[in-house]
Amino acid sequence: MATPTVFKNFINGEWVASKSGETFENRNPANTDEVVGLFQKSTADDVNDAISAAAEAYKKWRLVPAPKRGEILYKVAQRLLNDKESLSKDMTREMGKIIAETRGDTQEAIDMTFYMAGEGRRLFGFTTPSEMQNKFNMAIRQPLGVCGFITPWNFPMAIPSWKMMPALICGNTVVIKPATDTPLSVVNLVKVCHEEGIPAGVVNMVTGAGSKVGQPIINDDRVRVVSFTGSTEVGRKVSEGCAPKFKHSCLEMGGKNVQIVMNDANLELAVEGALWGAFGTTGQRCTATSRLIVHKDVYKKMVDMMVAKANALKVGNGLDPSVQMGPCVNQSQLDTVLSYVEIGKKEGAKLVAGGERLTGGDYDKGFFVKPSIFADVTQSMRLWKEEIFGPVLSIGVFDNFDQAIEMANDTEYGLSASIYTQDINNAYRAMRDVYTGIFYVNAPTIGAETHLPFGGTKNTGNGHREAAAATLEVYSEWKSVYVDFSGKIQRAQIDNQ
Known about the structure:
Layout: E1 6-7, E2 9-11, E3 14-16, E4 23-28, E5 31-40, H1 44-61, H2 66-82, H3 84-95, H4 99-119, E6 126-129, E7 135-142, E8 146-150, H5 158-169, E9 173-177, H6 183-195, E10 203-205, H7 210-219, E11 223-229, H8 232-242, E12 248-252, E13 257-261, H9 267-279, E14 289-295, H10 299-312, H11 331-347, E15 350-353, E16 372-375, H12 382-385, E17 392-398, H13 401-408, E18 413-414, E19 416-420, H14 424-433, E20 438-441, E21 457-458, H15 472-475, E22 477-484
Parallel strand pairs: 1-5, 8-9, 8-11, 9-10, 11-12, 13-14, 13-19, 14-17, 16-17, 19-20
Antiparallel strand pairs: 2-3, 4-5, 6-7, 7-22, 15-16, 18-21
Helix pairs in contact: 1-7, 2-4, 2-6, 3-4, 3-6, 4-5, 9-10
């Protein structure tokens, strides 16, 4: 076998080895015989070097006119577009999802980078009339400084771009820690940024464990923004770590997303939506359709259709274009999925599809599991309440629209939801009454676009949004500016009574 490639950290415009002298392996979850690469097992000292580089680079980068920053991002976006196929294949090799999906992941990074390049000629503030004569009032955006990013493995290029590009266009500098399961995609993204003209120190990357790399990023006083995507449990710790220094934190965390199917729905469309929502990315999405609730009149038919479709899905190596679902990302995630299958059985839910690890032949080299469906799931069960982050769909039944809304909202999370119906009144009522950050009508719970805000309510997030112009609120602060050209002291409300 060929000697694995060793990938280094990127600090102050150079590829450098960790001071630890150690590396860790990244293996293909569809074929664990393949070592995708060796990556740096970094330390707090490496993080310190990266933050120091970012802090120094900030002094000049913030003064680069935003349109000029946008021109560089435009070059980055064009390069990502040109390299889309190779970037996508690397992503499938390191995290397993099918090639059609990794192309979509890369396309999100392209879209976000083009979008934020355009913001370089906007970054709109506003003017407003003064209550005094001969006085001009306006509000403008200003950058914050060094931004620290802790990114997940399921969208290893899209999500880093959601964080990096708005931060850069606002004039901030970046230190990013990629997930240990998917560092190569971030290496590739950072490499493109460097080669297309982003100055040394503006973008820095340090690989390694959360405790060794993520925690020092959170703790360093020079880091003024921390953006994290991952579990609610870890997100809470990030929030607590940022609070003492009043750092900005943007948290995008768990989901237990629901698809409602009314008795007037187009069932063929609803089945296709639930299938894609539940088993796309092997169910390893924060927006995955984890709960499917169906009107009693069409419940049995819907379950039977879902089982037939799920059993027909082709599972395998995502580089095979005929494959429809890839592996779990690692052994731990596979174990979690199988443990929830056992939990569902013990709780009395009816396992109607899957529930087993796939074995034999090439399956033995990867973390493959059958698409799994439980029927007759009730609101008291753990299957209903807890995020599984795998290809396990729980199906429940409701009697009427009001009950469906109550069931949809019966979760600690509030990321995404959808309804399938031909009744426009019920569609609009559901849009109003289901308490989530994202909502779809006659579409699955997955499929967000970069020019709308992304994020959720309740335990899914902390009120901020990624993507679109809304994310600029995370990476900039408002400055109100008053220009008095009266030539005398004007005491605002005192002199304006």
